[in-house]
Amino acid sequence: MSEPLKIAIAGLGTVGTGTVKLIQENLGLLTLRTGRAISIVAVSARSKKNRDFDMSDITWYDDAVTMAAESDADVVMELIGGSEGIAKEVVETAIAKGRHVITANKALLAHHGAELARKAEEAGVALAYEAAVAGGIPVIKGIREGLAANSFDLVYGILNGTCNFILSNMRETGRDFEEVLFEAQELGYAEAEPSFDVDGIDASHKLSLLASLAFGSEVDFDSVYIEGIRAISSLDIAYADELGYRIKLLGIARKTQDGIDQRVHPCMVPAEQPIALVEGVLNAVVCKGNHVGTSVFEGAGAGGGPTASAVVADLVDIARGTILPTFGIPAAKLEKAVSQPVETREGSYYLRLTVEDRPGVIADIAAILKREKISVKSLLQHESNPGKAVPLVITTQETVELAMIRALESISGLDCVLEKPNMIRIVSL
Amino acid sequence: MSEPLKIAIAGLGTVGTGTVKLIQENLGLLTLRTGRAISIVAVSARSKKNRDFDMSDITWYDDAVTMAAESDADVVMELIGGSEGIAKEVVETAIAKGRHVITANKALLAHHGAELARKAEEAGVALAYEAAVAGGIPVIKGIREGLAANSFDLVYGILNGTCNFILSNMRETGRDFEEVLFEAQELGYAEAEPSFDVDGIDASHKLSLLASLAFGSEVDFDSVYIEGIRAISSLDIAYADELGYRIKLLGIARKTQDGIDQRVHPCMVPAEQPIALVEGVLNAVVCKGNHVGTSVFEGAGAGGGPTASAVVADLVDIARGTILPTFGIPAAKLEKAVSQPVETREGSYYLRLTVEDRPGVIADIAAILKREKISVKSLLQHESNPGKAVPLVITTQETVELAMIRALESISGLDCVLEKPNMIRIVSL
């Protein structure tokens, strides 16, 4: 048996602690599967408090960057998080010192993925990030290797468990966003500062990595169109149900002749589609390859155990000698992404208006839609309350988003429209 | 760039032809992803008829074994099928000559997997078989690498698309097995000789490979308990619906303290469970790991394109230099499987009897169940037809299968029981 593989871990939060526990618990199995002994030689974290694992053979570093530079680790795990600062320094230092890097940090790779991939390749080390997308689900490996025979034109998924939990719970209980968010925070499914999750940023980080990997393009986070779930009300959820849809926050990346379309926004998905049935904190990723057709990966998208499973899967690869280009092809060959603007989307739309209940309202709205050549598919008004505010729901036939945006602007300007309209894209993938 | 990777293909049926087409269509992409040129140098098939791909640079062999021995291929693809005979000779010859082997042949590996894995390892070549289980779904890689951090105690799935199509179609149309089988044959979803599929043998081949890989044991096909779907009637499908279940042919492998339980049989699965919603020719595999929890892989389980996708995924691995032990650990370390007999199962059961409608029938049956300490959960008798045959359906609480088998024997012997009872296991995973 060759030399033990020596590991340094930066960050001992949920994921870091889960990783240490997994390695300690499954050590014999990991050695059997990789043919190598594995040894945690160094750790670093914000505070040197008592941890509930044995630290006696592990060197403590107050500073993670010093650890990345000076420990004798073969592999540095960056489990700190954040797109800049210490996490980035740890990764850069480890690469510069010729150490393999495993990271769970989607923000870092979304912002600096192409550049870090180049550096890792030049240094001849792995930059592995299975844990950065969809937690324990082995979707990076699935696309980079398992489906590597295919060219892809579509990858999409439920990439944020917090949002999926909130939307599932709103549907089950009929409650509104704020109330369910509060419960999610109590349960530990949402952060005290929830905006990375509920505003769609976390899902967008992950989507940009999937797009790079699937399409062979440089990570292009800045081009992702992002809309979170704060505007979804219990009314929207109820109308979706009535119309045969479920509302899901999807990340969708599509390669067309004109470029790459990356978007994260709430979608109305036909209720019988498999992705509509993925509930609670689960994640799912769907890929469409030119020979395999549609493949689905589903499982736990977050949490200490599942994320550690992905971190250690990368470790197993390294221990077995599987060192592949970060995004599946040599970094120098990644194409500059040409972004396709969201306005070019063709699809159907759901529109919920709050209007004053008086004669002529529907005629005014219909006239605007006609001007933009938008055909109405269904129109729902359940209540009548003359002179007062009532909800009016319209779904459209397929139209170009630009026309929809113009129509929305005009509709918002009508006197009879009392609140900002809520528009949700209807998506059938 | 290094030397081109030279390939010889044995068998040009649906999968072989699909593989040639995929390689020719995606050649540039494959070279980009692997960093190596790939070249098909030789093919062999039963007849040298005109193929709809360019054969000008490819050497034809009448005999696949001669090709495995004498061509200068680095990789031999065995896409012939069958557990013995020429397929086995091709694989053994290629390995003996130091060539990597890629096969889609579950029967061969189910019967000779451990032995062939040892030979491949001794020769230092790959014996890769992603295409042998669940077609295009990268589940072998998923378990061997993507979830390699975990110890597993359960892997199960819908492993035969023909059976899943038949059961889905029976439910949708209310028709009986024979009629739907005929349609499946017309559609090309079932073979003219359907018994490998409908009697559960194909699914059992695949299950035995998944079990070996997940549990680190030698392939033990002979221990799989096998029951096909011929006995499922439209009545059973209708009762399942009424009781809130779907009938699926599942392969289930479980590792317990006592050994490994491998079984393929029709199951009544709660209708809201994800596996119950996998319909038509789709396949799905579910793994339960000790850190990742439950992971699901779903997609196309058969067909030229999807299976070729898996064959070429193995080729990409080899081109990239990823050569791993066939069943995830060195062949010499695979444990002898200790099989756990099906009679030890604890679970609930569905029982459909055809009884004479007369007083005392239920009392007689209930007495037998009482003797075997089996509690009834529900009892359905919808028709009354004094003196004539009526269906009587019983579901039980959890009980040991041995008790159920004894009870069934006694019940079958009752005068009032007019046909062989149909028993289906209720499974909640």
From TrEMBL, chains A, B:
SUPFAM superfamilies: ACT-like (SSF55021), Glyceraldehyde-3-phosphate dehydrogenase-like, C-terminal domain (SSF55347), NAD(P)-binding Rossmann-fold domains (SSF51735). Its EC number is 1.1.1.3. Pathway: Amino-acid biosynthesis; L-threonine biosynthesis; L-threonine from L-aspartate: step 3/5; Amino-acid biosynthesis; L-methionine biosynthesis via de novo pathway; L-homoserine from L-aspartate: step 3/3. Keywords: Amino-acid biosynthesis, Methionine biosynthesis, Oxidoreductase, Threonine biosynthesis. It comes from the Bacteria. InterPro entries: ACT-like_dom_sf (IPR045865), ACT_dom (IPR002912), Asp/hSer_DH_NAD-bd (IPR005106), HDH (IPR016204), HDH_cat (IPR001342), NAD(P)-bd_dom_sf (IPR036291). It is an enzyme of class 1 (oxidoreductase). Residues 350-425 form the ACT domain. The keyword Oxidoreductase applies. The keyword Ribonucleoprotein does not apply. Gene3D superfamilies: 3.30.70.260, Dihydrodipicolinate Reductase, domain 2, NAD(P)-binding Rossmann-like Domain. NCBIfam families: PRK06349.1. Belongs to the homoserine dehydrogenase family. This is Homoserine dehydrogenase. It comes from Kiloniella laminariae.
